[in-house]
Amino acid sequence: MGRKPTHASLILKNGKVATLSKQRPTAEAIAILGDRILRVGSNSEVNTLIGDKTRVIDLKGKTVLPGLIDAHVHIADFGRTLSWINLRRAKSIEDIKTIIKIYAAGKPKERWIIGYGWDESRLIDKRPPRARDLDEASPENPTILYHHIGRKCVVNTKALKIANITAKTEQPPDGEIEKDPESSEPTGVLHGNATDLVWRKIPQPSEDEIIEHLELALRKVLEYGITTVHWIAPSLTELNAIKKLVEKRLYMPRIRIIMPANYISEITHVIPPTSSLDSDIKLTGAIVFVDGALAARKAALTEPYNNGTTSGQLLYTEEEINRFMHEICRSKLQPVMHAMGDKAMEIVLETLEKFAHEIRQNNLRPRIEQPAVTRPELIRRMKDFNVSASIQPLCIITEFKVWSAMENLGPRRARWLYPLKTLIFNDVNVCGGSDAPMEPINPFTQIKAAVTRQYYFEERVTLEEAFRMYTVNAAYAVGEENLLGTIEEGKLADLIVVSTNPLEVTPESLDNIKVEMTMVGGRIVYSEEEARNLY
């Protein structure tokens, strides 16, 4: 007797399928069985798999892409910002005051009010709001409102008092407390590291609040077509919140957890490396912050920053980094090394050389997070050690435009700031992320930044290269290229349907693309039509 034909559980037909597979780059239809892709091909090829119980979705010419992967995101912080007041549409300081006054009404005294998104260039007043403005709207609640670029904020008098910022407070390194030229009293406007003086005084959210923030963030992630997140989870509190979230059985993207290496002994007895809390959540990597941020002049460089004597800062000694690497390899976790400066990258690569045997033996794939100041010889060594470069394209714009990389580094070093094209040309696996909430999470905005780069045009990448950063390359970075990243038979059915084919539009219009449907494992977890009806 012949074998009974297999029928698909779901069919997507009459579409434009961009598979990102080199074997079959385009198709019309996809057949799905359970959580896997059963067939990719023409409508006629896939129609043979329709059975009595098969659900059929007519795409009507719309484009299907592989689910997108955000390789570097801070989900809890992102969710927390989603609970903040959005001031992007405020057109005047009076608008801001009205919004804050309405929000503060009925709130307990001492409850912090946090907002973001104001921009004085869009306000009719053509000046930033100041403490006295916020005092009129929320005199009893400490209030902090972040500028749309992030490292600038305005706070009210209550917040200034809590942070003990007065006329006598000295200016912090790489920061500014704006002061009235006559009285020397702070105006409430803070820049750079001065914003941290207030941020440190804001109470940390409770576990219940963290779970609420996570739910907000994960819903938004699916809305943007992100089906897998490489989640930088900085604390055990956050890990416990993730576990409780799983128990609620919500629709979620796939979660790949990256925890600080100093928590390895506490984490791995709860979640064994690469095993699952359930089928979609895994502990994959341990991160070591070898140096600090470039914008704070804490990234460790081989030469001093321009107009200064500092060369940044290594956060650990080489002996400590070696000890971390030993623990990471022993636990069979992916070594994830944050190294923005060329000095930090040198030390990371030297450490990987020392542990090359253990890394190969355990089939680990090391990666460097945010490799910013990257010299050509470092790129060659990254290739030799099969090191992935995890880069967030919008950070490139921020470093040049907001931080003034040309001025702080000089043209010789700025030329090698996030050299995307050179990395890809030299066969370094480059995966893309958002670094949300520090930068917008929208992957199409990030991809646009990679292909329209305004600084050192020769480092622009093609549309396909950029999309591979958020699909194939990101899957490879955690050893999942056989499961995710392309639309191929046998792979997990993580797919998105978008309003326009992003591979056929002008790069400038990429961030206008809307995700109409997100699917994780053959299950529709977001539908733009349902969301529109809901709200």
Verbal overview:
The model has no long low-confidence stretch (mean pLDDT 91). Strands 8, 15, 16, 17, 18, 19, 20, 21 and 22 form a nine-stranded mixed sheet that branches. Among the domains are: 76-199, Diaminopimelate Epimerase, Chain A, domain 1, CATH 3.10.310.70; 260-483, TIM Barrel (Alpha-Beta Barrel). It is built from 21 helices and 25 strands. The chain starts with 9 loop residues before the first strand and ends with a helix. The chain is of the alpha/beta class.
Q: How are the secondary structure elements laid out?
A:
Layout: E1 10-13, E2 16-18, E3 26-27, E4 29-33, E5 36-41, H1 43-47, E6 55-58, E7 63-66, E8 68-73, H2 75-82, E9 85-86, H3 93-104, E10 113-118, H4 131-137, E11 143-147, E12 152-155, H5 157-162, E13 175-179, E14 186-192, H6 195-199, H7 207-223, E15 226-232, H8 236-247, E16 254-260, H9 264-267, E17 276-278, E18 281-289, H10 318-330, E19 334-338, H11 342-354, H12 356-361, E20 367-369, H13 376-384, E21 388-391, H14 393-402, H15 405-409, H16 411-414, H17 420-425, E22 430-432, H18 443-451, H19 463-469, H20 472-477, E23 495-498, E24 515-520, E25 523-527, H21 528-534
Parallel strand pairs: 1-6, 2-7, 8-15, 9-10, 10-11, 15-16, 16-18, 18-19, 19-20, 20-21, 21-22
Antiparallel strand pairs: 1-4, 2-3, 4-5, 7-23, 11-12, 12-14, 13-14, 17-18, 23-24, 24-25
